[in-house]
Specification:
single chain; 389 residues; alpha+beta; Creatine Amidinohydrolase, Chain A, domain 1
């Protein structure tokens, strides 16, 4: 646990402390930030409080008294609910503004780990609860140099597999060998294993109207055959099978034929230009030392798509934070699903992936952007033309 850094961050946010709470491992963020593994099952509630000044302290149930032993500070115990209430009051005694894994109106669901009843209980102590979203981004979303290198290595592997997957489809079309979305998904999964890559699910391989469903995933018994004249979208994400590895997440589009219809080219151009405007916004801002917030990046892409007459067909955020989970806890590039006012901070990574989803086909182009102190870069290959198969 980075105690000194946490306390400095609390002072910077003008907070009295950060209150962690868990029951039955509902909050994985707490364990990641505190960097500990409980020494007993977590079947009872525990609290751990880090004040901006002073020693941290905990509160645990008597039958799981060893839960917080790996963490510094004194740990009081309770058995009854009355003792828990009194122990919590003593734990945060004197505090007025405290961070918790809470998000007002659940605007950032990735942060909203504390249940409403616990929020009510803490507020009943005359404490103002502030979202820990900014703190979490600083302590859970920033990458180490090793994680960046693992991301880049995973990216090289995924880019090779993506190229091979499109070639696999092209060969099947040329030889007349039938191939389905499911077949290609399994081809990619096998190559992931060969490259030492893992993923939580997917990838998404989708043709035509299926590509208009951003979270489509083929199944053996529910998939389409890939035929000449189809628009083909592949969305794949994976990380190295190593501790602390982080994801690489991309989407590319192809056309099964020598020349795409004008409508497909027009939509592809609109998505590509929207993506590039968002990338340019981030890169220009980073080089100028400008503070940028997630919703502003979304605006850069969304306003261009709207100007091309496709605004209603772009119905998800422009991008998401990337970490050890493919959807991380940092700032999202979002002014649609939420109004994400969090700043893009150095050593974080996120996707830029605008899309247009018409009834007959969809196009999405996704890259990963890593922000450093005074720069931002796309970490892998970038698609500028439709792949012809």
């Amino acid at each position: 646990m980075k105690l000194e850094e946490i306390q400095e961050a609390l002072k910077g946010e003008r907070l009295d402390g950060w209150l962690f709470f868990d029951h039955h491992r509902r909050d994985p963020l707490a364990y990641r930030v505190l960097n500990f593994e409980p020494r007993s099952p977590v079947t009872r509630r525990w609290f751990y409080y880090i004040p901006a000044i002073g020693e941290p302290r905990g509160l645990v149930h008597k039958i799981e008294a060893e839960t917080l032993n790996a963490l510094p500070g004194k740990h009081a115990v309770y058995a009854s609910w009355q003792e828990m209430g009194a122990g919590l009051r003593a734990l945060v005694g004197g505090a007025r503004r405290v961070a918790m894994q809470y998000s007002p109106k659940c605007a950032i669901p990735y942060v909203a780990m504390v249940d409403a009843g616990t929020v009510e209980m803490v507020r009943g102590l005359n404490i103002e609860i502030v979202s820990s979203a900014n703190l979490l981004q600083y302590f859970d979303s920033r990458w180490s140099a090793e994680q960046l290198e693992m991301h880049l290595e995973a990216g090289r592997g995924v880019d090779r597999i993506r190229n091979a997957a499109f070639q696999h489809v092209g060969e099947a079309l040329r030889t007349g060998r039938g191939v389905t979305e499911w077949d290609v998904q399994q081809f990619i999964r096998a190559r992931f294993s060969d490259e030492g890559l893992v993923t939580d699910h997917g990838p998404d391989v989708a043709v035509n109207a299926n590509a208009s469903n951003p979270h489509y995933e083929p199944r053996r018994d529910a998939c389409s055959e890939i035929r000449k004249g189809d628009v083909l979208l592949m969305d794949m994400w994976a990380k190295l099978d190593r501790p602390s590895a982080v994801y690489y997440d991309i989407t590319w589009v192809g056309y099964c034929g020598p020349q795409p219809p004008a409508e497909v080219e027009n939509v592809f151009d609109a998505v590509r230009n929207a993506r590039d405007r968002a990338i340019e916004f981030v890169q220009d801002g980073a080089r100028a030392g400008k503070k940028m917030r997630g919703f502003e990046v979304d605006d850069a892409a969304r306003s261009f798509i709207a100007s091309q007459g496709f605004g209603e067909y772009f119905f998800h955020r422009t991008g998401h934070s990337i970490g050890s989970d493919v959807h991380g806890t940092g700032a999202n590039m979002d002014n649609l699903e939420t109004h994400d006012v969090r700043e893009i901070i150095p050593r974080t990574c996120f996707s830029i992936e605008p899309g247009i989803y018409l009834p007959r086909f969809g196009v999405r182009l996704e890259v990963n952007v890593y922000a450093s102190e005074r720069d931002a870069r796309v970490t892998g290959e970038v698609q500028d033309r439709i792949i012809l198969l």
